[in-house]
């Protein structure tokens, strides 16, 4: 994160730019905010987890006010100068709010009226409440389920594919139609509680245009606001930045609007939809409603029927897919979860596009990723590549001594692909780690494990069994006993991570007396 010095304080470039923008814009209004106070507010906001200076909710106002009342930034020293005059601090904060609303810089879907009202009313007295800052709104169910463990890496979908899927969501399409109807803007309904809505006289007109009921218009307005297709000022309803991005054909714009709108589209089900989607996202496999319910046993308000209804709604909205045994997450659902987790400060690793991955990356994803990402991953990666080059790259990415699972998976894939070891893989036939696996692909049958490469491949097999707490296969006794001395010497000199453990088991007689004697003699030398 780049930093600069502003007003004697080291701040991020984003905050410095935001402060300058606000100061420049305020000169025309005659009310210039205090630069130190604004720097304090935006720095506290950032250190409490805000992704950018313009991402404000009412909850953020109360969180930042707690920091102000405590007299210090969450991660830095006290700021007595900026905190001395609460009137200056409040007027600066209100000027920042006005600046965001005027310049379409409020990137959240918070009501500007509610936000400004919260700033006007919040207690800023230094030395007051020092209660802990709560997690951001909507974060608790996510953070509870993660329990400090980051999600597994996620394979991305193409932005165009996500957009196509989002366009199939009827609710989002209707919200977009409402946005078109709003056109150049409408008056915002006066509401003492700050609830944003169309004026009473506009609701019937919008309902007639969309062939919907007034209640449906209220819901679609909420969806369009959450999607950033519509935005509001203190008095008007206008097209939002997502509407412009969508109409301009910006890749991913429709999917982003869908993801931002999902909480509004599922609001009637409370947190149940979020909990169900979180479960499917983290596990990345097919799940039945009863399994998801069991995962949240003990949480109030969660039962199997509610989970089932929530999942059916998520399927209708294109977030999840119905399967024979239940439901699994879709790419749009993944997209939404990644955005939500990042907003609450959870690091989520999204890999490069599969077509852009190298062999190391794709193999790492097969080992670390979720089943929904890894099922046919290697086949998708090989498509569009020269088969011989791809086969060699996969093998070369499997040479780490402890990568026995990877070598097994790659060899099984190459066998299914019908790769010829005598031509395509000839450079690897004598490789000390890969050679034994490549030779297994030969049609002439398996060689005795007396050389280092063939012994290494067998040790890979045994390492898998050792990891699982399983015995060595009794069927290998007859195959290995005639070559006991050569095999044991190859094992001992191999350098394989599992060599000592295997020799101990052989010496204990796990594969018979002949191999036990050979292993004991090797140990005594």
TrEMBL record:
Disordered: annotated segments: 127-162
Protein name in UniProt: Uncharacterized protein
């Amino acid at each position: 994160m780049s930093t600069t010095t502003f007003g004697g304080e080291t701040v991020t470039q984003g905050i410095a730019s935001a402060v300058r923008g606000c100061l420049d814009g305020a000169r025309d209004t005659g009310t210039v905010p205090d630069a130190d106070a604004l720097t304090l507010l935006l720095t506290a906001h950032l250190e409490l987890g805000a992704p950018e200076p313009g991402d404000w909710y009412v909850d953020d106002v109360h969180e930042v006010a707690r920091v102000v009342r405590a007299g210090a930034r969450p991660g830095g020293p006290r700021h007595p100068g900026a905190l001395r005059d609460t009137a200056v601090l409040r007027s600066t904060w209100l000027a920042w709010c006005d600046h965001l609303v005027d310049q379409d810089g409020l990137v959240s879907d918070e009501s500007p009226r509610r936000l400004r009202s919260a700033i006007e009313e919040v207690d800023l007295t230094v030395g007051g409440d020092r209660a802990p800052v709560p997690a951001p709104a909507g974060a608790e169910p996510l953070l509870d389920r993660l329990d400090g463990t980051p999600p597994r890496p996620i394979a991305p979908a193409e932005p165009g594919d996500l957009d196509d899927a989002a366009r199939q969501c009827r609710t989002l399409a209707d919200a977009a139609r409402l946005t078109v109807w709003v056109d150049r803007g409408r008056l915002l309904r006066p509401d003492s509680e700050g609830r944003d809505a169309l004026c009473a006289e506009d609701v019937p007109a919008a309902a007639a245009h969309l062939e919907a009921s007034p209640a449906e218009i209220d819901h679609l307005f909420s969806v369009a606001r959450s999607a950033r297709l519509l935005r509001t000022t203190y008095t008007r309803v206008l097209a939002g930045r997502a509407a412009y991005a969508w109409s301009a054909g910006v890749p991913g714009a429709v999917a982003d609007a869908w993801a931002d709108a999902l909480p509004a589209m599922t609001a009637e089900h409370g947190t149940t939809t979020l909990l169900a989607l979180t479960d499917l996202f983290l596990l990345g496999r097919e799940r039945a409603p009863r399994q998801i319910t069991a995962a949240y046993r003990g949480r109030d308000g969660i039962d199997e029927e509610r989970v089932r209804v929530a999942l059916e709604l998520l399927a209708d909205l294109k977030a999840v897919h119905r399967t024979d045994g239940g439901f699994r997450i879709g790419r749009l659902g993944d997209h939404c979860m990644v955005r939500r987790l990042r907003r609450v400060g959870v690091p989520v690793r999204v890999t490069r596009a599969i077509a852009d991955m190298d062999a190391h990356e794709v193999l790492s994803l097969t080992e670390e990723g979720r089943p929904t990402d890894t099922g046919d991953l290697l086949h998708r990666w090989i498509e569009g590549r020269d088969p011989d080059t791809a086969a060699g790259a996969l093998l070369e990415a499997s040479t780490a001594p402890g990568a026995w699972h990877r070598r097994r998976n790659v060899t099984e894939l190459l066998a299914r692909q019908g790769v010829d070891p005598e031509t395509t893989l000839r450079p690897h036939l004598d490789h000390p780690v890969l050679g034994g696996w490549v030779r297994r692909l030969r049609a002439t049958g398996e060689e005795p494990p007396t050389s280092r490469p063939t012994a290494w491949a067998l040790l890979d097999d045994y390492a898998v069994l050792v990891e699982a707490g399983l015995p060595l296969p009794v069927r290998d006794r007859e195959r290995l006993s005639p070559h006991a001395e050569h095999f044991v010497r190859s094992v001992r000199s191999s350098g394989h991570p599992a060599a000592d453990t295997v020799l101990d088991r052989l010496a204990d007689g796990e594969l018979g007396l002949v191999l036990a004697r050979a292993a004991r003699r090797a140990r005594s030398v």
